[in-house]
Design goal:
Blueprint: H1 3-22, H2 27-40, H3 42-58, H4 60-66, H5 72-85, E1 89-92, E2 98-105, E3 112-117, E4 124-132, H6 135-142, H7 146-160, E5 166-170, E6 175-183, H8 190-222, E7 231-233
Antiparallel strand pairs: 1-2, 2-3, 3-4, 4-6, 4-7, 5-6
Helix pairs in contact: 1-2, 2-3, 7-8
Length: 249
């Protein structure tokens, strides 16, 4: 028997006991009459049971909330409320692989994705996005030897390993996918989510700055003129479960 089911059954029993105790003159008599009626008229008992089930169904989210149990609806509503409180521009995406997914854009800075996904890590909210090279830098990077590319990626990995984010560096597409995971527990609060967003933003900004320095050094060796800085995006098409080489919550 699951913990959630036991809590719901305890709530139902508590309501019955409360009704009996709340009306000292006739509360117990009411309970006795209900059970007698159920024995004499089974159809009436079925109606009473259906009525109780309908009430529980209508109040299900509220009942679970009373016990601190987080539902998907609660989590999504809370995330949206917290993002609005911090003045993010929020767009809800239609993603069949997600319980919910938002593209959130702060007043200053690039967009990021915040979602809860079905098939893996469904007990986590995932904040994620990517950094990609500009076209000119991509051509320059592709012109490096495989050893030089690996060395550059290794240097970038050393930096990212110091952050509070997970990451994956794809040498084939010249993209760095970054994510920050937040467990869905009773301790999930506005502060916890906003801290995770800040961790992600800092990791992404640090990645951009590190890339600029590394690419500047590489351009100097190849005498390639400087170009636009790396491009950041929400990367909503990237599934979070594919984005982690190193994982830190």
């Amino acid at each position: 028997m699951s913990k959630r089911f036991r809590k719901v059954m305890a709530l139902m029993a508590g309501i019955i006991v409360w009704l009996a105790g709340a009306f000292p003159q006739n509360g117990l008599d009411l309970m006795v009459d209900l059970f007698r009626a159920a024995q004499i008229h089974p159809l009436r008992a079925i109606c009473v049971a259906i009525g109780m089930l309908l009430v529980i169904y209508a109040l299900w989210d509220s009942i679970l909330g009373m016990f601190g149990i987080q539902t998907r609806k609660h989590v999504e509503a809370n995330v949206r409320e917290w993002l609005d409180a911090f003045r993010f521009s929020v767009k809800r995406e239609q993603n069949e692989n997600a319980h919910f997914e938002f593209i959130a854009t702060p007043e200053m800075g690039g967009s990021l994705v915040i979602g809860n996904y079905k098939h893996q890590l469904d007990r986590y909210i995932i904040v994620h996005g990517r950094v990609a090279l500009s076209d000119t830098d991509k051509r320059m990077f592709d012109g490096l030897s495989r050893e030089e590319q690996t060395a550059l990626a290794g240097s970038l990995s050393i930096y990212l390993s110091r952050s509070r984010a997970s990451f994956k560096i794809d040498l084939n597409t010249n993209e760095i996918n970054i994510q920050r995971r937040v467990p869905i527990t009773n301790e999930l609060t506005e502060h916890v989510l906003v801290t995770a967003i800040e961790d992600f933003v800092n990791a992404r900004l640090g990645t951009v700055n590190a890339l600029i320095m590394m690419l500047t050094a590489a351009r100097g060796e190849q005498k390639v003129p400087s170009t636009h800085p790396p491009h950041i995006s929400a990367a909503k098409q990237i599934q979070p479960q594919q984005e982690s080489n190193q994982q830190k919550n």
